[in-house]
């Protein structure tokens, strides 16, 4: 079991990790998520005693790593795939590590088999692909047959077969009662592997909860409603009727409406009463990826922008149309706001999408943070999807929503 | 703290719920042994013999020492007038060893600094959190390898040279001269290499450490070359006296000057410097982030 208390690391005036406290328990895979540069690797290095924390402490089984007796027999770690001397063969690399911690030489060939590198054991690791390097790193982590395992981005560079293998390996290691702590920036991968999640952004804890709680607390069950294209009045009429009935309506970039707080049959009834035809009425669950992105949105350090090529363009010949931007270029500055029950974390997970609002939270008022679709027409830059699809009725979305950061946390 | 308010209260009950899970932890069937310096020594021996740079640097070293030694032997024996009968014939091994020292410096630096360059150091320090033990093992293994290689090649060259010059009226070296000309220089050069290893551990950068160590070997002589003025005479003499090439030549009783170190002095000097640097590297290694 890994326990961090008030862990803080500063490099000069940059704070990489700030006041991080968490526990990683045995018998489960704990995912460690965060955007690039959020302090995941720094935290991992502090757990392993490679970096000294500026403040706070982290222990494994009650001891700081550097005071563990025969640490590699208790903790195995894959920090980064290329933390090997490229001139040494895979087998000699593992052999030197085995000798360092008094592990029988036989074990080296065992782990080479476990990770499937037995055929290239005598090859110098310089020529290894990223995936082979990851396998060698995993072999080094497994070498001591430890009860605590740390993996920093283990699936980087692996092929689909390798990813599946790592996923099953993590699960089986945890099932044996070991503590497995896996960092990743891929929510989708963690959703399949982890039992518990620790999410950090800019070095601070954003969430520490089981994956099931994370899903129910962060993924919004909603109904997607689409009215016939070109019937703008119908859409607005339905939208206001739904809002009146207590629903929360949010336009999507492609012109559909995202409705929360009303069950599907009720939406249908309201549409029928209002004489609005529907092209689509479907239950949805926002993906975990989206929930994660929304949560970490304000903590993203490296954000891409649209390639403007400003000043490099040839002047357009008269009459020529400027090129339409390709959707997806640049990072979208918009994610759907959290579900209305965001302020009610004790809400039970909802089984039936669309049937969500039954109960005390039915018709819960939309959180103040949620941008109202018609609240600020024309404000801010249009989002990239709106530009490309360019339906005339696509409502502009406020790009710089000042309330978003509080909301995303 | 600006971490989320919502998830935290939720996490607590979830945690307590699972803490009582049946997993009491995992126990490995492989017996756990208490590790000591011996394990680190074996590991470092595996490391040093399994990279090509060791083979290359030591190969070039032996080639330089033997090649240059035999060449000077051939040249001198064919024109015996260059060497008076009072001179120590082992002196001829000096040139090869001086050039060869660059190879030992390179290998010494690479033993520590290459781990930082490749990132291997993180793996090593994870596998052995007793960082001082790793440094000690590296130092010991390198020292023994460097000493053995130097001793074998210097003894070979010494035998070859005395045999070549035996017919040309040059005297046989005494026992003390034999000791200093083989074991003495080997200890000196191995310690010079060890100093490089320690500097590599302090700087953590191969090219930088190698440059500095070659500078340490050559710079004093070069600087002394430009000190013409009378007022700097003392500094100049001291620089020449204590320059590494001159210290090395002391082992052959063939110093450039008549002041400065004599006898076994150079060995004590390099030993003291290396010990100081080692203590510094040890302290730095313990407190720095890897």
TrEMBL record, chain A:
Gene3D superfamilies: P-loop containing nucleotide triphosphate hydrolases. Residues 352-391 have a biased composition (Low complexity). Keywords: ATP-binding, Nucleotide-binding, Transport. The keyword Mitochondrion does not apply. Residues 315-326, 335-351 have a biased composition (Pro residues). Residues 2-227 form the ABC transporter domain. Residues 300-409 are annotated as: Disordered. It holds the Pfam family ABC_tran. GO terms for molecular function: ATP binding. The keyword ATP-binding applies. InterPro entries: AAA+_ATPase, ABC_transporter-like_ATP-bd, P-loop_NTPase. Belongs to the ABC transporter superfamily. This is ABC transporter ATP-binding protein. It comes from Streptomyces tropicalis.
UniProtKB/TrEMBL annotation, chain B:
The keyword Membrane applies. The chain crosses the membrane at residues 55-78, 90-113, 134-161, 181-203, 210-229, 267-285. Residues 1-20 are annotated as: Disordered. It comes from the Bacteria. Keywords: Membrane, Transmembrane, Transmembrane helix. This is ABC transporter permease subunit. It comes from Streptomyces tropicalis. The lineage of its organism: Bacteria, Bacillati, Actinomycetota, Actinomycetes, Kitasatosporales.
